[in-house]
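ok so dumb question maybe but i'm new to this and my supervisor (M.) told me to 'just get the structure for Catalase' and walked off. so i did the thing. is this what she meant?? sequence i used:
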Amino acid sequence: MPNPLRYNKKFDELNEEEKKLLEINKKTIADFVEQSSSISDVNYATRNAHAKTYAVAKGTFWIDPNIPESLRPFFDKEKFDLTIRFSNAELKIRNTKKDIPAYGFAVQVRDDNGGLLANYPLVNFPLFPLNSVSTFLQLFTAVNKFYIKKWSSLPSLCTQLLKTVPSILNGSFMKNVLKLISKRNDFILSFDYHSVGAYRLGDYMIKIKLTPQGTDKNTGKKQKVQEALHTYFLAHDFTANVLIQICYDLKDQPINTLNKEWKNSPFIKVGEIKIDKGSLLDPRDCNNELLSFNPFESKSIFQPVGKIQKLRDEAYKVSLQTRRKINKLLHGKSPEL
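this is what came out, is it supposed to look like this??
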């Protein structure tokens, strides 16, 4: 294999137009979170994305003993402690039996002293529909306004949605859409989970994939997702392989083209995630709802790479600050999540 391509901060840089659109978007994020309790009909402020918490668990990241020598400096312990949040990607919490199959598997990695090493918000779809930062920001702003202002914002939302069509009409993206549709009724823990964008691993740039080991896709068929998860962890352990791809060539492994899969970069197993049965935490505990999985709170050598990824830094901060301002009054209470 060729030498890995080195991280450069130029991959993350936004132009002036993108910065202005980001400021507009941040205002709509704050507005959404401030009104999120009424939007979702709950008694606490929710996140601006992945609002619904299915479960929170403690887990362990066990390092593969056969990890390549070049990667050992980044995985210098036998194991690391994890906090994991299972979620749904919708902005609004819906009290329905069947949620759209857009799931989150957010992982927080800590050292022996409890210090934060990295946050990785993984999802069960490997690609992102947009490469244009401006188009994404305008769409995200329109979505936020639609939830706040309802039908008066519908024309603007439709206009922005039309702009996404060219980006999703490619083979790689459509293949994964059809795959997700075919698995729409599968158990949440039977999906692969992906980092979507790239992350740093020191000077390397990587993508992350998590693949479950032997989880029955038919588990909890007649249950809501949250009920199925809780029933599963009463009786079962969960194990998943942690794999990475390394960026060697921007043509085959593009950093800022997120609607196409990386090719010609083999998956490397770096370890396993293990969640023991009985490891779920109380999802009604307000402290669990206040958890932050902002990947930019990670150590610098583990942070996200890319322009779309860069937007998440400011978005997470605004969402978290607004949520904490509102939810601090609920500290010690038990909101129904």
